[in-house]
Structures
1.
Amino acid sequence: MILVGSRMKGIGLGVMGMVGMAIFVLVFHMRPGEPPLDVMMIILSIVTTAACMQAAGGLEYLVFLAEKLIRRHPSRIVFLGPVVVFFLALFAGTSHVVYSMLPIIYEVSLEKRIRPERPLSISVIASHIALTGSPMAAATAALAAILGYPGAAVDVMKIGIPACFIGMLAGAASVLRMGKDLPASGPLVLEDAAEPAAPAVARPLKPGAKTSVYIFGAAILLVVLAGAFPSLLPAWDAGKVTFSMNANGSLKMVTVIEIVTLAASAAILLLTPATPGDVARSSLFTSMAVALVSVFGVVWMSATFMENNQALIQGALGGIAKAHPWTFSIVIFILGVLMFSQAATTKVAMPLGLALGLPGPALIAMFPAVNSDWVLPGYPTLLAAIQIDKAGTTRIGKWVFNHSFLRPGMVTVVTAIVVGFLLTKVLL
């Protein structure tokens, strides 16, 4: 079902997951697992807030600042492009911010006669790897909820952000000589290309654009503070575990994120000219609907399979995972290839890791392995980079897997995992 759904794209993964659920429950009489309601609510809350910022012009303002920085140092585009994209995605909690940066990166590359494939490929990878550590990413919140101890969110961030940033720099270094250099003179755009990329045109910012960025930034700060100092949050008498509370009566981090981000959404709508209709029409809000359906179907199906076969899986993988914890990152990576979602992969793989007896720090170190949705070149960010590159240097190879993103993606993820293990020895 996952293989068929991944070929269908969009909500295909989710609806095919439900076909799998029907087979598991009605044919094999498996007991249904728990649906991923926590991850779905995180995605809904965070992406709604990002969509409000987009509707208010906040993303345009961030892209404007990023473009100024890139054009100030055009010769360093192979490193500067992905660094800027990394921090944009880290701040916004979504890889889709890269769409606005790709034309700028492509144009600057051509101006400096740098092969566009180099900065474009690693910039796409940077937009993905930045999410495993971003305080506004659903995958980060999901891992913190799965680990379940006070301060887990901060531990994920303090390991994930530097490990993924160093991994991204290694990925940028790996593409410095990738492919042939562009000729020093002559045309650079393919003859059969529809048209060359248009130069970026400065547009006036919407009123309230800066305000929306400040509100979004304040929401991030509150989420980080809540994760770092859980004692600041209200608590009640101990009781049973609920959707919003732990057994000891404290608020779950997922609950804090939902309250803070949706309250920030309200503040943006109240303090800027953006309207609810503008938010509903934004590209980020549309992408959220696709993500919700996909995560709901495929994660529920996977959780049902894992729970009903837990003893068999533990017997097959438990010994290897305990003796060589890093090998579990291969399992995570393969799941990520099939699921096309960091949050969905986290929700399926990390509980399995805990069931196999892997410690929390090891799972945090292996967290970047969920960023493997670029292996099959069908993810929208990859296709956008290929389409932007009218010079034809960014492409899918003859054998499909040998595409422009394979080298920077592998180097980035492997380096981030290695650095993550080193950092957990020092910081955790």
2.
Amino acid sequence: MAKKNTKANIILVLALVVMFGARLLPGAGGLSADAVAVLGVFFGSLIMWIGISIDWPSMITLLALGLLPVFGFGPTFVGAFGNTTVAFLIFTFMLVYPLSKTNFVRRCTISFITNKIARKGPWHFICVLFAAVTFMGLFISPSVLFVAFMPFLEDIFQVLEVKKGGKTGNLMMMGTAFCISLSSGMTAIGHVWPTMAIGYYTAATGKDVNQFQYMAMGIPAGILLIILLILVFRFIYRPDDVNDICPEKAMSLRGTVPAADKKEKIILSVMLLTVLLWVAPSLVKGVLPDLYATVNGWSTAMPPLLGCVLLFVFQVDGERIMNFKEVTSKGVLWGSILMTAAATQLGSCLTNEEIGISSWLTSVLEPLTGNLPVIGLILFFMTWAVVETNFSSNIVTTTVVSAVALSVLTALPEGSVNVAVVVCMVGFAAGICNMTPAGQSTVNTVAIGSGWTDTKSMFVWGGVFAVMAILVLSFVAYPIGTLVM
């Protein structure tokens, strides 16, 4: 194995030298410098495909082509995958998968629930628990996180001696489900519906919304919703057994998870680099405009592609950190990818001016929306999105509501409503989906099936949460969004 890896590493270095070294050569023999650079990528790719494998080295080919100014990442991803959204989801799913195989979820949760604030009292503990799952949900798929977190949540219940059938256990299970689903709308990192909403807006208008802009709206709105949820639980739901919780008992969980090893540290470092490439350019836009223009032009799919390449290249104990066969079979949600590809094209067709559906929808909805003020339109679309996502697929909700919103709102006088914010809010609203099992099949069915909560509780309190979300999105998220988009 060691000899095989050494040979592969030598071949990889040779291929990279050919690929990127060719960019330094001038044009010759009738070939331009760009032509020489492309030939360098071609021959470097051949070296990798013949000497290493045809799977993950192909991602280096995409990275090398995207870094060529004559092409760029946008056209490269469109040529390879049809659109940037599909490429973004594939690479992000692959990048996040290795993290789910580590002890990060348990270690992160323990660090949250055993700190001084969490140990001050039962409600402090509940607040910190919800904060922990929300934080992890910002960059981990809700289904993956909830399934990974459930066994540990059971351990927490056992350590704290929380009783099944009690209101506190019900509250903690519902709150965990609500917060994990909510977090999938707070960022577009590895989350399908916000990514789709952004993709629809870009396809319809030619304008883009970056990760920083989305999070600047989504995270404050999500934090406010969590605060409101906790207030509802404390002063309206009012669990009679909450004072039976002794947060100090959670201290026994310390030491049950080994310290992060070299592999986990590399994975976390690569994840951090990816997030920085998404967010940092927007923070230096006014100071370093050229850097912002360059990095922002790489598209949102480039950072996770780079992250995947690094995890395929890096090795620990003679093995590459990421295994292509495993990550593509277990880590990538191909059903969501295929539906996203189809739904993106469908949304583009629905909003195509030559087809005429947009103008027809506008005329049909004119009696309903024509006399509504801007806030009325926003309330209309947010209510529609939140209600539908609780009874159908999140992806279907995002597709349908985004398409109609784009058709109706782009027909209004320019400047009367911020279309980008409303469409992004539809992606956020798709994560408010805990009333019925159909809303978020994995999270809701596992929560109900656990015995800690039931269908009635999820419907009633999920409904209360949904109403709060509609109001927060309409009256808080929209104003914030208009400041950054």
3.
Amino acid sequence: MAIDFTLEPELEAIRLRVRGFVDEVVRPAETRLLGERDLDRDSYIKLLFGLRDEARTAGLWLPHMPAEWGGMGLGHVELAMVQAEAAKTYYGPFVLNCQAPDEGNMHTLLHWADDAQKERYLRPLCEGRAMSCFAMTEPEVAGSDPTLIRTTAVLDGDEWVIDGHKWFISNAHRARFAIVIARTEDDPEIPQAANSAFLVDIPSEGWTEVRQIETMHGGTGHSEIRLDGLRVPAGNLLGGRGKGHLLGQYRLGPARLAHCMRWISQAETALDLMVGRSLDRFAHGSLLADKQGVQWMIADSTMEVYQAKLMVLHAAHRIDRGLPFKSEVSMAKHFVANMLNRVIDRAIQVHGALGYSTDTPLAHMYQHARWARIADGSDEIHQMRIAQRAIAAYQEHGTTRAATGDLPL
């Protein structure tokens, strides 16, 4: 029987090590990082990066990268268990150096960069000496359609000159470099071959951070960027001319799934809080846990977290096996993002006014969760692609089976 949802003993041991590290090391420090307003900047940085040193010492560094780059060499199924444990805390993924957008950029550089680019850009990321960003989205065109990108890169001698406008570039305020997607081809054979990717050092002349965009959860490094006559050496072209779309899609598949892994952890935390509150709160003659309306919210949330875990594990399995995974990742991303919003919303409802306050983490989680339905492809784009694949499967095979996971049942 090939289907087995258990972990090998050594992997189960890693999962428990991550859980122990998060509970015993990260969580106590996070209480200080998030709660003590008198913690000055130097103390904050020393405490936060000290946690990274402890992760290295514990052998829990870079779970997604191969051993030759200082990582744990875990596949996507194995990474799911690590991300799920790490994301039980706000800083967990950062401490283990598997946070977005750096994680996705590491995968991208490992696959697309030449040896010199890897040493200059990937090595510092893996060693925790640098942070990065991925600059594709633009305010003037729909972010869900990269073929509309207006930022241009024109070859001038041995340099590319980039002009354009980017926004919602996560981590740009803290990044040492960016992967910038720009249009290089005027008349490509297909629209998807118009763009190329470039490695851009930050700061650089012509790179201007206009502002950090204030979002529902505050100003946290989602920047608006102007690119005016930015010159980049020809050697900073990443992956070849016209490969920007392929590179972006390669990056976004596993990156979307990594988000899902972290979102499942957040949803499970919300479910735990919901059940804990229902067992603690007495009203109108009984505990909330005894009331059918609350039980339905708990039941729906439990089933949805279970569905989400199965979808993510199956999509990760397909990536690890080298099988087509776009449809499965799209379905997982859409479902998990919406599940996260629903579960947190129910948890707030069960907590009543307390859930709406900032006395619990739920309000903060809810602000972040709404972003999940937009980031890395909006709900509607994923639904469109899922439908197109189902229709194509039926047209080719006379059945939609291949579009529903191609599972043996």
